Amino acid sequence: MAKDLGFVHRFVAGEENDQTTLLLLHGTGGDEDALLPLGRMLRESAALLSPRGKVLEDGAPRFFRRLQEGVFDEEDLVNRTHELAEFVERAVSEYDLDPGHIFAVGFSNGANIAGSLLLLYPSLLAGAVLLRAMVPFEPKEMPDLSGTPVYLAAGSSDAIVPQENSERLAELLQEAGAEVELDWQPRGHDLGSGEIKAARDWLAEATARAS
Known about the structure:
Largest sheet: 7 strands, mixed
Shape: globular
CATH topology: Rossmann fold
Low-confidence stretches: none
């Protein structure tokens, strides 16, 4: 097990010729191991940094509390986002990571806090892969995400994330200056091989541009 740094987590070193680190953020009920296989599918040579959410909902780990399905506890979300950002900064120092090449990869609850990281800490991430994400909150002041690449995969039949919510998230990030690719998948809240391949290709291009 890796050092704590504020979160139980896994760290898997990347290849020496790859500066990329994937910050893997699991969905409800996941843990620090849940997205490691996905991380390797998206980029074999990257370092993987995978924390476990600290909030428990009926025993299932999450990154922040919710009041009900689709309704977030915004105060807790903001506080947990600050905590996660501090963890990333500590990990950069502990593992000698390149802070300019950290890409978040989040699914569901993990994608939501990744979106919150983008809005509250616009310089922390080089980009993000958001899988089944919702609008975390409407910022009072728009951050500067100029040129930050974001891949947003949404399910056209997702019973948890309404289509208009996905569209609003894309719009919000674009208003902040991010370069957003909204990829509609013919699926529900689950992930398919098509979007994993699309995310892999997108990430290859995004990491090349960050180099």
